[in-house]
Amino acid sequence: MNLGGLLRRELAERAQEWTREHGLPHCLSYGQSPAVCFERDKDLRHGNFLAVTYRTMLRNPNWRRRLQKVHLQGRKSSQNTRMESGGKLDACTSFDALLMN
Protein backbone atom coordinates (compact mmCIF):
# COMPACT_ATOMS: atom_id res chain seq x y z
CA MET A 1 0.00 0.00 0.00
CA ASN A 2 1.27 3.49 -0.82
CA LEU A 3 1.56 6.33 1.69
CA GLY A 4 -1.62 7.98 0.42
CA GLY A 5 -3.54 4.75 1.01
CA LEU A 6 -2.11 4.44 4.52
CA LEU A 7 -3.11 8.01 5.30
CA ARG A 8 -6.67 7.47 4.01
CA ARG A 9 -6.96 4.30 6.11
CA GLU A 10 -5.70 6.12 9.23
CA LEU A 11 -8.14 8.99 8.64
CA ALA A 12 -11.03 6.54 8.18
CA GLU A 13 -10.21 4.63 11.37
CA ARG A 14 -9.91 7.80 13.43
CA ALA A 15 -13.12 9.21 11.94
CA GLN A 16 -15.03 6.06 12.90
CA GLU A 17 -13.75 6.40 16.48
CA TRP A 18 -14.72 10.10 16.46
CA THR A 19 -18.29 9.34 15.34
CA ARG A 20 -18.71 6.68 18.04
CA GLU A 21 -17.31 8.90 20.80
CA HIS A 22 -19.43 11.92 19.86
CA GLY A 23 -22.56 10.29 18.41
CA LEU A 24 -22.20 12.15 15.12
CA PRO A 25 -24.49 11.47 12.15
CA HIS A 26 -22.63 9.79 9.32
CA CYS A 27 -22.62 6.97 6.82
CA LEU A 28 -19.86 4.68 5.57
CA SER A 29 -18.47 4.08 2.11
CA TYR A 30 -18.02 0.62 0.68
CA GLY A 31 -14.65 -1.07 0.87
CA GLN A 32 -12.34 -2.99 3.13
CA SER A 33 -11.55 0.16 5.08
CA PRO A 34 -14.74 2.24 4.82
CA ALA A 35 -14.44 6.01 4.87
CA VAL A 36 -16.77 8.07 7.04
CA CYS A 37 -19.02 10.59 5.33
CA PHE A 38 -20.17 13.11 7.91
CA GLU A 39 -23.55 14.84 7.94
CA ARG A 40 -24.67 18.07 9.55
CA ASP A 41 -26.68 17.45 12.71
CA LYS A 42 -29.71 19.27 14.08
CA ASP A 43 -27.45 21.59 16.12
CA LEU A 44 -25.66 22.73 12.94
CA ARG A 45 -22.51 20.80 13.81
CA HIS A 46 -20.53 18.85 11.24
CA GLY A 47 -18.22 16.04 12.34
CA ASN A 48 -15.61 16.79 9.68
CA PHE A 49 -14.97 20.33 10.95
CA LEU A 50 -14.11 22.10 14.15
CA ALA A 51 -17.22 23.93 15.42
CA VAL A 52 -15.71 27.39 14.90
CA THR A 53 -14.54 26.45 11.40
CA TYR A 54 -17.97 25.16 10.38
CA ARG A 55 -19.78 28.24 11.70
CA THR A 56 -17.33 30.46 9.80
CA MET A 57 -17.85 28.44 6.62
CA LEU A 58 -21.63 28.83 6.88
CA ARG A 59 -21.30 32.62 7.16
CA ASN A 60 -19.05 32.93 4.11
CA PRO A 61 -21.04 32.60 0.82
CA ASN A 62 -18.08 31.20 -1.16
CA TRP A 63 -17.27 28.59 1.47
CA ARG A 64 -20.95 27.70 1.92
CA ARG A 65 -21.12 26.97 -1.83
CA ARG A 66 -18.12 24.64 -1.47
CA LEU A 67 -20.00 22.74 1.25
CA GLN A 68 -22.82 22.14 -1.22
CA LYS A 69 -20.60 20.75 -3.99
CA VAL A 70 -21.82 17.18 -4.52
CA HIS A 71 -19.36 14.30 -4.30
CA LEU A 72 -19.43 12.61 -7.71
CA GLN A 73 -18.77 9.14 -6.29
CA GLY A 74 -21.26 9.49 -3.42
CA ARG A 75 -24.10 7.57 -5.06
CA LYS A 76 -21.85 4.66 -6.08
CA SER A 77 -19.66 4.42 -3.02
CA SER A 78 -21.95 4.82 -0.01
CA GLN A 79 -23.63 2.06 1.98
CA ASN A 80 -26.40 4.52 2.76
CA THR A 81 -28.71 6.39 0.41
CA ARG A 82 -28.30 9.54 2.52
CA MET A 83 -24.85 10.02 0.95
CA GLU A 84 -26.29 10.25 -2.57
CA SER A 85 -26.35 14.03 -2.20
CA GLY A 86 -23.34 14.21 0.09
CA GLY A 87 -20.71 16.84 -0.44
CA LYS A 88 -17.07 16.48 -1.33
CA LEU A 89 -16.11 18.08 1.99
CA ASP A 90 -18.20 15.55 3.97
CA ALA A 91 -15.76 12.67 3.44
CA CYS A 92 -13.24 12.11 6.22
CA THR A 93 -10.58 11.67 3.55
CA SER A 94 -11.17 15.11 2.02
CA PHE A 95 -7.85 16.91 2.02
CA ASP A 96 -9.67 20.19 1.36
CA ALA A 97 -11.67 19.70 4.57
CA LEU A 98 -8.48 18.94 6.48
CA LEU A 99 -6.87 22.13 5.19
CA MET A 100 -9.92 24.26 5.96
CA ASN A 101 -9.82 23.20 9.61
Task: Describe the secondary structure blueprint for this structure.
Blueprint: H1 3-22, E1 26-28, E2 36-38, H2 51-59, H3 61-68, H4 74-77, H5 95-100
Antiparallel strand pairs: 1-2
Q: What would you note in describing this structure?
A:
- By secondary structure, the chain is mainly alpha-helical.
- It has one domain (3-100).
- It contains five helices and two strands; from the N terminus they run αββαααα.
- It is globular.
- The mean pLDDT is 82.
Helix/strand order, N-terminal first: HEEHHHH
Termini gap? 27 Å
Residue ranges: pLDDT <50 for 5 or more in a row?
none
Structural class call reads: mainly alpha
The share of residues in extended strands comes to: 5-15%
| Global mean pLDDT | 82
The backbone outline, from C-alpha atoms, is globular
Which key terms come to mind for this protein?
single chain; 101 residues; mainly alpha; two-stranded antiparallel sheet; 5 helices
Short description:
The chain is mainly alpha-helical.
